[in-house]
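Figure 2 data, in text form.
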Amino acid sequence: MPHMSYDVIAEHAGLTRQLIRYHYPEPDELMLDLCDMIASIYRDVLISTAGSLQGAARVDAFLDFYFDLLDGTPKPRDDKVYDAMMSLTASSPELKLRLGEQYRMIGQVLAHEFAVQYPDLDQQGAEELSWLFVCLMYGHWKMVAALGYDESHRVISRRAMDRLIRSYCAESSDGAARVKVFGRPTA
C-alpha cells in the first residue's frame, strides 16, 4: 500500500499489526473499510453542524467545514489517507468505485442544498456547482497537504466558491452543454 502500511494504521488505531492483518488479510478490504469510516466521520460532523441549521447558514457551514473555516469544528487531517486511497484506485477497481461514489454523494447533497438555497439556479447549474466544489476542495487540500502550501490559502479557495455561486446564479446553464455531472463512461 503506497504511503499507508499496516504498521502505520495499527499505530494510529492503537492496535497491533498482527491484529490488523488478521481482520484484513487483503489490503483492498482494509482500504475499503477505511474509506467508509472516514466518510462516516465527515457525515456525522456535517449532520451535527449543517444539519441543524436553516437557510444560507447550511450551505455556508458545509463549505466552511470542507475548507476548514468552521469555528469549533476542524476538518479532519486525513489528507495523506485520501492521497493513499487515490493512488490505490489505479489498481483497485472496487476502491475507485467506492471513493468515487463518496465524492458523488457529497456532490448530490450539495447540489440539493444549492437548489434549495438559490431558487433561481437551475438543476444543471446546482449540479455543476457541486462538481466544481468537489474539484476545488480536493485540489486545494492536495496543494496544501501534499505540496506544502500554507493552509491560509483556504480563504482564497472558499472565496472562489462564493464567486462561482454568484456567477452561476447570475447566468443560466447552457442547455446545449449539458453534462451528466458525476457521470462515468459506460463500457
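Caption note: The chain has one domain: 26-177.
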